[in-house]
Amino acid sequence: MGGNAKLTDIYTIKTARQRRLLLSMNPIEQAAKALALWPNWGNLMSKLRLSTVAALMISGAAQAAGPLTIDVHRDANCGCCKEWIKHLQANGFKVNDYVETNMSAVKQRLGVPQGLVSCHTGVVDGKFVEGHVPAAQIKELHNRQHLAGIAVPGMPAGSPGMEYGQTTQAYQVIGLNKTGTQEVVASIGQVDR
Fold it and tell me: Contact at 8 Å (CB) between 147 and 178?
């Protein structure tokens, strides 16, 4: 009986270590490790239940990593705004399209400075996206916590939504800090300083 007690003690220590390991992982890793660490759970039904839970967790995680949503406010008569929306959709964005009658009021409400104004205004994660900003810069905006928004002032030829003919202009994506100062977030093409 003494041998059994020792075996039980070793099993308990091993289980506690495994529990600590599992608690340090995300739910998907936990389910996978639990299946691998405890193959002697006894019956097949327990393993099947755990497999089902793991599958549900994985599908939930996949849904949570869905497309980035952006609200786009635009004038009904602007063709380049519609082209910019197509650019966003082609790059995986879910676009909520709002046709506005007073874009100046929208820009003012969202805090877009007069010097950064363009034709349409987007909102993603509570931050403004003004003008023909490339999708890649919008995706990076999430990681730039110090910014209130980003903009491509004016309507530079060759920017997303402004691809007409062979003409392209160099332009900058400008970030507006929450303190009100501006910084260059990206330079597209060659920009003279």
Answer: yes
Could you give the count of Cα atoms lying within 13 Å of 183 in the half-sphere of its Cβ? 10
Report the C-alpha gap between 66 and 94 in whole angstroms: 9
Measured CA to CA, the distance from residue 130 to residue 145 in angstroms comes to 17
Can you tell me the distance from the alpha carbon of 123 to that of 143, in angstroms, rounded to the nearest whole number? 15
Strand, helix or coil for residue 102: coil
Strand partners, 7: none
β-sheet bridge partners, residue 130: 121, 151
- Both tokens assigned to 32: 């996978």
Taking only the tens place, the pLDDT of each residue in 24-74 is 555 555 555 555 555 554 555 455 555 555 555 554 444 445 789 999 999
Q: CA end-to-end span of the chain, whole Å?
A: 84
CB crowding 106-145: b at 16 or more within 10 Å, else e:
bbeebebbeebbbbbbbbbeebbbbbbbbbebbebbeebe
Q: Which residues of 150-168 are buried (b: 16+ CB within 10 A; e: fewer)?
A: bbbbbbbebbbbbeeeeee
| Domains of the chain and any CATH numbers | 2-64 (no CATH), 69-188 (3.40.30.10)
* Cβ-contact 123, 96 below 8 angstroms: no
pTM score of the predicted model: 0.65
